[in-house]
Specification:
3 domains; four-stranded antiparallel beta sheet; alpha+beta; six-stranded antiparallel beta sheet; 35% helix; 319 residues; 10 helices
């Protein structure tokens, strides 16, 4: 899995853009939706295609956002879109038509496949997910059942027969800690910037922010300091962090802010484009869109500013 994404060359940026998915040209968007309709038809299902969703005669809806982003990021380009789309549609229909795993799997197996998952809070129905834990503005933690072809986000009603939520979350967190590190790379420069980037096919790679202290030990062999770490989780398959030890936090913060925004854009499973300060398990947002909405700005509170001044003063004194 790539650390930095670079989309395949297709229609130029000067081509008219698709109204829903701006990473497509108008022509690419039409081709994509036509291939989606064909993939459903091959499965014997006629659907009505809208800009960001398709519906069937039974009223079921199938969102197109993640699939569009997958096609956009496909390195082999539009020639393989039909294969990618057919595979996705087949998986979705198998999942929807199969008996619920909650009805067929024994409770012990369900608990062994339970994971916490960090998601963007936008669109999260608080009446259905009353148990969801707010991590920071725009970020929530829910519980998910990991299945061979899909991930089932569990509602309040789904969790009720399985036991108390705190007990289930404790088991899910243990499962998360046991995940292997699939890929890791250190990015650094002579100016003190240093980022540790972890990637993986697991849908819970970014959710490891919930056990960041364990991940840091696993990746670096060191402990997180009392000052904590900078962390970014732009999409579900990637997490990046910088353990705060010295004045290198300043260039690392700027680099991580750009890294997070780039990784979030047009990505399947996007979570957040922002950087956070992790300290004792709590997350504080450090970057935000500027007032014009075109770029990013760093926004730090008094506690973080005091820490920066202390680290810079120590660095100056060492010199």
């Amino acid at each position: 899995m790539r650390l930095f994404r670079r989309g395949p060359k297709r229609d130029g940026e000067d081509a008219p853009r698709d109204a829903e998915f701006a990473f497509f040209s108008v022509a690419e968007g039409a081709r994509f939706r036509g291939q989606v309709r064909e993939a459903f038809a091959e499965r014997g299902l006629e659907v009505t295609v809208y800009s960001d969703v398709v519906t069937d005669s039974a009223g079921r809806q199938f969102g197109l956002g993640n699939l569009a982003a997958v096609c956009h990021n496909e390195e082999r380009g539009p020639r393989v879109w039909p294969k990618v789309i057919r595979g996705h549609v087949g998986m979705v229909l198998r999942t929807m038509d199969a008996p619920s795993a909650l009805d067929t799997l024994p409770p012990d197996q369900i608990r062994s496949q339970l994971y916490p998952r960090v998601i963007g809070s936008e669109g999260l129905d608080r009446e259905t997910f009353r148990y969801a834990r707010a991590l920071a503005p725009g970020l929530s933690e829910v519980l998910a059942l990991d299945l061979p072809e899909s991930v089932m986000i569990l509602t309040d009603d789904a969790l009720e027969p399985l036991g108390d939520v705190p007990v289930l979350r404790e088991r899910a967190m243990a499962n998360l800690r046991d995940l292997p590190v699939e890929g890791h790379q250190t990015i650094k420069d002579a100016g003190g910037m240093r980022l540790e980037v972890v990637v993986g096919d697991s849908f819970y790679t970014a959710s490891r922010v919930l056990v960041l202290d364990a991940l840091v030990r696993q990746v670096t062999g060191q402990q997180i300091t009392d000052d904590g770490a900078l962390v970014a989780l732009p999409f579900r398959h990637q997490i990046a962090f910088h353990v705060i030890r010295d004045a290198g936090v300043i260039p690392s913060l700027n680099a991580l802010a750009a890294f997070a925004a780039s990784g979030y854009a047009d990505t399947p499973g996007a979570i957040t484009p922002y950087v956070y300060w992790w300290r004792a398990g709590a997350l504080t947002q450090l970057s935000d869109h500027d007032e014009g909405g075109e770029g990013l700005r760093i926004v730090v509170g008094e506690d973080f500013q005091d820490m920066l001044q202390r680290l810079v003063a120590r660095h100056t004194g060492d010199d």
